[in-house]
Amino acid sequence: MPIFGLIDGNSFYCSCEAAFDPTLFGQAVVVLSNNDGCAIARSAGAKALGIKMGDPWHLVRSKRELCGVHWFSSNYPLYADLSRRIYQVLTDRVPRVEPYSIDEMFLDLTALPGNLFERCRQIRADVLRIAKIPTCLGWGPTKTIAKLANSIAKHEPGLLGLCDLTNPAVRAAYYARLPAAEVWGIGSRTAEKLERAGVTTIADFVAMDSKTLRDLLTVVGARIQAELLGVSCLPLSLMAPTRKGIAVTRSFGHPVTTWQELREAVAAYASRAGEKLRTEGLQACHMAVFLQTNPHKPDENWHSGQRAGRIEPTSDSMTLIREALRMLRPLWRGGHRYFKAGVILSDLVLARDQPAMLFAVTDPVKSAKIMTALDAVNARYGRGTLRPLATGIERTWSTRHDRLSPRYTTSLKEMLVATAW
DNA sequence: TCTGGGGTCCTAGGACCC
DNA sequence: TCTGGGGTCCTAGGACCC
To answer: Which UniProt keywords apply (predicted)?
Structure first.
């Protein structure tokens, strides 16, 4: 029988901030989304103060009792780097590791020698010692059970961050007690549907007959049930699957009312999408562009629009900007306060598999040279050092990050310096 | 003044094909 | 009274995840 483990960082983004600033340990810490919009990570201390996932920050910060909370703009280069360090610690100790998200990794614990519980305790201690991130680790015979074990480890302090669900009797006891909505893959809509059918606990869910379950939740529900019964349907995958789409969508730092600002922002998003394509050796054959006013302000004049279509396969920033602006032009209407826009690329193909276009608008040789040079300069001197003029100079529309911590691990200028006398 | 961003998978329905 | 059968591809929308 296989044994899957799932390890994840506790309040991961907050723990990353604390890893380089020990004064934050045990404090109320919050990390905000892009544009400093809402809370997306809260330390235990912040949760205890009642700060919820997704709370709009401009409402929270005005409360006097919360003025002592430490808050940060999100610093993805730092979080991504600490995630890589955790991965490194794990691959040194476990034969197979599948990164699932920036802060979660599935582990193959099937053939680990010695006492499994002791091994897991050690893995967790090593991640804390080397990568400085506290974690929880749960395990069981399928991925879905490992996810549940991890969630139990997180929520029951007595377990010290570890939970073993390999024993069916232990599982059954938890299934009887926990709501079906705790299961990975059962979201709020599905939970409501189940509730109406009289299914509330996980035990109720695994007891459903297959016909009823399929009628209600299709093959997706059937797969979740099998996994909970210990039949593994989701294997560990070590190869990152090729991406299906790339999206660059952002709220603006302030409402955008001019065509000049809007076109700069969308050009910048298209350019960033091109960078992402090139780092993965991909080209896009389809593009969509959208814009919208603020959906949270019903009294303002609402407008949204989207345009999409095929483009010649490319990863050239200039071509992507040209196409994006062509789609954007008819969408823009003066007199609106635009709030957000985005560029979404899909139908991605590997650049090296692409035959030369017979009537290409962009000269492929010249394009490749320019993009290679552009990427090389930016890799050396930082993203955005060299960029298309269309993406703007002042960038008055750009996203806010009022309290960004240093990129301690990915920028020489920002690393911590220790001085000894 | 201020409410995130980026993904995946599944299904249903329409258009089209032989 | 009777009006085939079996495909593919595309898109939009819903649901889920972190």
So the answer is: DNA damage, DNA repair, Plasmid, SOS mutagenesis, SOS response
